[in-house]
Design a protein that fits this description.
Blueprint lengths: L1 E11 L4 E6 L4 E5 L2 H18 L8 E7 L6
Parallel strand pairs: 1-4
Antiparallel strand pairs: 1-2, 2-3
């Protein structure tokens, strides 16, 4: 059974960095581009989920990256 996790993504204009947070697994990371953030998060997300008890070793995980754009 696949577990679903949402990574909330924001852009910090002061640091010019993309920030990803998934409180369900204890993930907080940043990168210079959205694509780099996805890659970086995927390198550590499943291990974090298992280490923090959010999923078992025999489960699979799906990570959804969510970013909202505001238009004035």
């Amino acid at each position: 059974m696949a577990r679903n996790f949402v990574v909330e993504v924001t852009f910090d204009p002061e640091s010019n960095m993309w920030v990803g947070v998934c409180s369900d697994i204890g993930l907080v990371t940043e990168a210079e581009s959205f694509e780099a953030l996805e890659h970086r998060a995927m390198l550590i997300a499943q291990e974090l989920a298992m280490d923090n008890g959010a999923m078992k070793a025999d489960e699979t995980a799906r990570f959804f990256f969510q970013h909202e754009y505001a238009v004035a």
